[in-house]
Structures are given as structure tokens and as C-alpha cells.
Amino acid sequence: MTSTSTNIDYDETQLALFGMREEDDRSKFRKAISGIRNFATGYPLGMVGAVVMVLLVAMAIIPQLFTPLAVQKASSIIGIHISDRFETPNIHFWFGTNALGRDMYGRLIYGARTAIMIGFGAVILAKLLSTVIGTVSAFFGGWVDVVLQRIVEMVQSIPTLVFLILFVVMLEPRLPDIGPLSSDMLVILLVVAVHSGFTSSRTVRGVAISLRQETYVEAAQALGASDSRIMVRHIVPNLIAYVIVSASLFVGAAVLLESSLSFLGYGVQPPAPSWGRELNEAREELARYPHLAFFPGLFIFATVWSFNMFGDALRDRLDPRLRGST
Amino acid sequence: MQRYIIRRIVLMVPTILGVTFLVFAMMRLMPGDFTDFLGGDFGALDAETKALIQAEFGLDQNWATQYIRWLGDLLRGDFGVSVYSGRPISGDLLQRLPITLELGIFAMAINLIIGIPIGIISAVRQFTWYDYTGRAGAIALLAVPNFWIALLAISLAGKYALWAVPSPIYPHLLEEPIANLKFMAFPALLTGAAGAGYQMRFGRTAMLEVMRQDYIRTAWSKGLQERTVILKHGLRNALIPIVTVIGLFLPALIGGTVVIETIYSIPGMGRYFIHALNGRDLFIVQALAVIFTLVVIVSNFLVDIAYSILNPRIRYS
């Protein structure tokens, strides 16, 4: 345990998850295995979600593992192969090909990277932001709180997609590419993160306000601890369980928002593969080639579903008080 | 109560002002403006002509003047004109608002009709197959991209179910009511379904919370029928928190109408928004963003008031 005082009773799995206890590697490993086994028996659907999640992350990191055929390789899924256009699913093109003769299976596998990068990136940023805003707003109160809450309210009252679309259109041409994140992906990541960071800071603020009343905060104040010390050492660590749970539930939502934006044409730009974008392109030839719409949507659905299932189980496991809430 | 209402109304003002300024600034910071689209097939207009056209709409003045003038117009109910047609926006709004309203109200109804009963059954039969199926269904609904289902439905409908084919022309509600309802049914179902997942989960939690209360135990021990306990003692109390979340669905619901209106070619506000934004028809985008926001803010306010009326234990101070 760190020196932080806490009012939450952490059990073994949590300690293992947060890496808070130092033990030799072998018993750590054994504990992790038994932790996973317990999770799988207690939450079978959560485990299914976790397995799909691991597969998706693997797809995002090493897509080559999933693409044995030449037509599925990174170079051929962004090239133009006119003679192969509009193939229905067959042994060469497992999910068929689109209007430019690009293999759909390969594009969807590579699309996992886009979805996972934006999903995880947005969630990490959003949760950092909401923790900072929520804690600051709760701790300082007064004018800081009033002003921050007005901004939160502004963001909350603009319909989600309207907010996202406006910001994406405004920012899109101005940001640089960073590594594998092209500028359009970066914009979606940032905009989704800022939107969710503000809207979800409300709940963080609520939790932080109740934590502020705890006696250990009072004790720290009596000992002369500075505001920033109390926030960083006493309030934020106690928020972590809540933040992790809400983060795991938000990845799915972020993936869904990215695909909605891409579907409307404001998201990831061609030729980069994105599931939402594939659905958008499938609209053109919907009547003749419905399979072009079927598979991308299936990928989005499976991703969001498994993240939600895993997040749900994780919440029940880590924080039973939140069980069943949305 | 009165003081609470006044306080809430006063706090709405900075929020609304903030949104108007945000949207105003964004439309001016966006790359490109409508004059870039006016050149047609033969290249862009020259800078002089562009400036002349911009001046016609007062866009040559500084931001402060433009913003204050726009706000003044808004307060007088004047939303400005479309920079392309020159027609006042309010006329278009009158045509389009009822359509989106219809879609939104149907979607909300579907959300409640699917969401609340399943949530209640899930709670009352906790840890049975009803519960597991309901919860898995709720999570599935949250995960299904509704634009995907819309596309699949359209492509399959072409072959099997002709009623789900989007008609190319929107039939007006008052002129052809039956055709209109047929046209709107499926889009409304899709718009409402995603929120129904949240509604189920929330309804379940609210009901579970209520069923644990002492007065429910009393009702059981009095020997009341299950029906009476659940509907009269349980549901009535669970409805209070359920009402409060209706307001929370609105931002997502309005966003949902944008997507569904685009797919089904419904001439409502969402489609208008996308169309105007792509052409940088700035006064329309500004007007729509403000109207959307007002709808959300005012309905959240009404929900809060309704909450305190429904629940006499809550007294805002």
C-alpha cells in the first residue's frame, strides 16, 4: 500500500491490478492467473468481452498476424485494383471487395488500429481531463466551480454529434500528423476526449465533493497540507477506482462516436481504413452489394459490445456500489 | 421553489450566451467560407468580388459588431438569411422543425415503451433469465450502430420487406398521415432504440433501489398481490428518477436524428444542419446550433421542475 490513506477496501485482485503490492514474480503470476480464472467464472460474458478486446488490440498492434493473403496486406488495401472490384465474399476475398477492388477483410483488420488508437487515446485523455476538472471544481468551489460548471453545462447542452462535427470541421486541416495518428484521426481523438472530459467531469465532481467531507481530508488540512497536496495525494487516489470503471465503459462509446463521424464523412479520411468510413462508402452500392455494409458494422458492433461487457463486469468486480448504474 | 426556479433561469443565461458565442466563433474560424463555393465550375471568385459579397452580409465588420448584431436579431426572433438563397431562415425552420420534432417525439416514445417495461421486469425478476436476457439486450442495443441497422434494413427491404424502403419523397404529416407514419416508423425506431438500452439499465437500477425500501416490505407483508406491490408501490416511486434521465437523452437523441435524417432523406433539422455546414451557410448553422441547445436546456429545466413536483420530498433551496 502506498502512504495514501484510503476508505475503499481493496481486495487482492485490485491490488494486483493497480500493481500496488510488491511480490516476487512467480506468486504475482500465479495470482494473476487465479484472478483471471475467478473473473471468467464470475463474469462469463465479461470474459468473452475481454477475449475479443485482446484480439482487437492484437489486431491493432500486429495486423499482419490476421492477414495471411497477399490481397489483405497493408499496401494492397489502399491500392486500386479495378479488375477485382465488387467481388462477393469468396476464398480469395473473404469479405469481398469494394468499388476500388480493395479487400474488405484486410481493410477491416487494419481498421482495428484506427478504432483502437482513437478509442483508447480519447478515453485516456478524457479521463485525465475529467479528473482534473472534477477535482478542481469540487475542491475550490466558489467562483472556480461556478465558471467551470457553466462551461460543462455549455458542452453538455450542445447535442453530442453537432458539437463533434463543428469542432472537427474547424480543426481538421490545422493539426499535424503524429506517428501513426494522421491529422484527421488526431482531431477526432481530441474532440471526443474534450467533449467526454467535460461532460463526465460532473460525476467526478460529485464523487470528489463527497470525498472532501471525509475525515482524512480534514486531518490533512489540520496538519497544514497544501490544497494541491490534498488533491493529488488524498482525493485523486480515491477517485481512481471510479475513473477506471468509467473509462472501461467509455471506450465502446468512443469507438461508436468515431464511426458515426466517419460514417457522416467528417471522420477518418480515405484511404486510411476506418469501419465507419467503409459503411459510408457501402451506401453507394447498397442495393447490389449489401455485404459491403454488413461486415464493417459487425466489427463496430462486436468491438463496442465486448468493451461494454468487459467494462460492466469490471465495474461489478471493482466497485459493487456502482452495480447496475449506467 | 420560486427562488430555485429564478436561480436556474438566471444560470441559463450565461450558458446560452456561451453557446451562441462558441458557435459564432467556430463558424468564423472554419477553413473556407461560402464565397469559395460561389465560383461554380469555372474556378474561384476573385478577392474583390468575394469581399463585396461578404460585405453584403455584414461579414466585413469586426467580430464584436457582428456578434452583437446577430444576438440582437436573435432576440427579435430573426434568424437571418441563407447566404445562398437569400431567403429568411425562419421560413425553412417552420417547415423543418415539426418534422424533426415528430421524429424526436416518436423516438422518445419508443425509448420509453421499450426501455421502462424491460428495465422493470429485469429488476423485479433479478438474477433470472428475464434479467440476464434484458441486460444482455440492453448492452447489445447500446453497441449497435443504428446507421448500420438502417443500411442493412434498406438493403434487405429492397428484396423482402417493401414497407421499410425509404420513400424518396417525404409525405407530409397532415396531408398524407398514413404514408407519413409509415415513412417515419422505422427511422424513429432506430433513433429511439439506442437510448432504450440506457433507459433499460437505468430503469432497472431505479426499480431495484425502490424494491429494497421498507415500504415495499410492508406492502408484501400486508399480503398485497404482486401486481399491486410492483405497479402501485414500486413503479410509482421508481418513475421519479426515471423521469429525470429523460432530459439526459436529448443531446444524444438530437445527434441521432442528424444521422438518421441523413440516411433516410428526411427533410428535418439534422439534414438541414449537415447541408448548411458543408456549404458554410453560416447563419443557418448558427441558428440550428442555438435552437438545438435551447431545446436541451429548456427541457432539462422542465424535467427538474417536474422532478420536484413528482417528488414532494425534494425541495430545492
Question: Layout of SSEs?
Answer:
The complex is a heterodimer of chains A (326) and B (317).
Chain A: H1 12-18, H2 25-42, H3 44-61, H4 104-140, H5 142-157, H6 160-171, H7 183-212, H8 215-222, H9 227-264, H10 275-282, H11 291-318
Helix pairs in contact in A: 2-3, 3-4, 3-11, 4-5, 4-7, 4-9, 5-7, 6-7, 7-9, 8-9, 9-10, 9-11, 10-11
Chain B: H1 2-29, H2 47-56, H3 63-75, H4 89-124, H5 129-143, H6 146-157, H7 177-211, H8 214-221, H9 226-264, H10 269-278, H11 282-310
Explain the overall architecture:
The complex is a heterodimer of chains A (326) and B (317). By secondary structure, chain A is an all-alpha fold. Chain A has 11 helices and no strands. In chain A, helix 4 packs parallel to helix 7. The longest helix of chain A is centred in the C-terminal third of the chain and has 38 residues. Chain A is globular and about 75 Å long. In chain B, 38% of the residues are buried. In chain B, helix 4 runs antiparallel to helix 5, helix 4 runs antiparallel to helix 9 and helix 5 crosses helix 7. Chain B is built from 11 helices and no strands. The longest helix of chain B is centred in the last third of the chain and has 39 residues. Chain B is globular. The mean pLDDT of chain B is 85. At the A-B interface, helix 5, helix 6, helix 9, helix 10 and helix 11 of A face helix 1, helix 5, helix 6, helix 7 and helix 9 of B.
Which features does this protein show?
heterodimer; A: 326 residues; mainly alpha; 11 helices; disordered N terminus; B: 317 residues; 74% helix; 0% strand
